[in-house]
Amino acid sequence: MTYEQASPPLTNKPKPAARTYVRAAPALFAVFASLLTVMIATRDKKTAKSPELSPTATTAAIQPNDVLLVVDDVTITYGDVKEQVEQLDLVAPEYSLRKKIQKVLPEYTIPLMFARREFGESREKLLDLAKTVRAASGNVSELERNGVDRAFRRATISRGDVEVPVASFLFEPTNVGAVSAPIEVPAGYMLVGAVDLKQAAVPLEDLCEAVQVGFFTHDQKFWREWKQDLRTRLQKRVSYVHPDFRLAMPPWLELP
């Protein structure tokens, strides 16, 4: 509706006495002031930033035992993602805690928790085997020699090519030439070592020539299909979400 449409038609009726408007003015002003207060409050509520967007404030507020998510009877606490989040802090401090959790949950923590539940017995045997190979591998050259019969890979990689805990070891300069302890990943366990590390001005652009030896319960094709099926199974199985971290949840989960 335009202002012209809202205006009353012109008539020849005499105007009301001025004192009528004088009496009405205080009441009209009170109504206007009340409406303005509501509008400002609504605006401020919509534009105010959530505390979770401040990494420092949120990290200080949340504790390791605080529950982030309960899905299909599996409880995930902040303690379950804390180590990976802190590792991301070192390379991407500008991102909020919410964004870091949003990366760690679907790529690492959720598949890890359910792999433990579904393939626990196989994982225990693989951990024992990984420990045996690690004991025989004092440096990265020995790891390369001892791991050729496993899921083996030697390649130049960036941080984004591997899981967060794997990247944490490989891209630490003091670890070049050394061999990790068994690192748990959703597919099983890994032993890794850096042959060479090229550090860039921006940590996310670092490159590492790495040896990776996997002790996995299944092959890559199985894991791709399993993770996709897991998402489908969990989509409607969420029973609790931490109210301050709803926006940190994977978008494929339907939240209560």
What is the string of SSEs from the N terminus onward? Answer: HHHEEHHHHEHEEEHE
Give the overall shape.
globular
Strand content: 15-25%
C-alpha-based Rg, rounded = 29 Å
How many helices?
9
Please give the largest β-sheet: 4 strands, antiparallel
Structural class: alpha+beta
Helix content: 40-55%
Poorly predicted ranges (pLDDT <50, ≥5 residues)?
A: 1-57
- What number is the mean pLDDT? 83
Total beta strands: 7
- Measure the end-to-end span: 40 Å
Verbal overview:
A hairpin with a 2-residue loop joins strand 4 (183-185) and strand 5. By secondary structure, the protein is of the alpha+beta class. The strands form two sheets. Strands 3-6-5-4 form a four-stranded antiparallel beta sheet. A three-stranded antiparallel beta sheet has the order 2-1-7. It has nine helices and seven strands, in the order αααββααααβαβββαβ. It has helices at residues 3-6, 18-47, 55-61, 79-91, 97-118, 120-135, 140-146, 164-170, 220-234, and strands at residues 67-71, 74-77, 151-157, 183-185, 188-198, 207-216, 238-241. The radius of gyration is 29 Å and the shape is globular.
List the helices and strands and how they pair.
Layout: H1 3-6, H2 18-47, H3 55-61, E1 67-71, E2 74-77, H4 79-91, H5 97-118, H6 120-135, H7 140-146, E3 151-157, H8 164-170, E4 183-185, E5 188-198, E6 207-216, H9 220-234, E7 238-241
Antiparallel strand pairs: 1-2, 1-7, 3-6, 4-5, 5-6
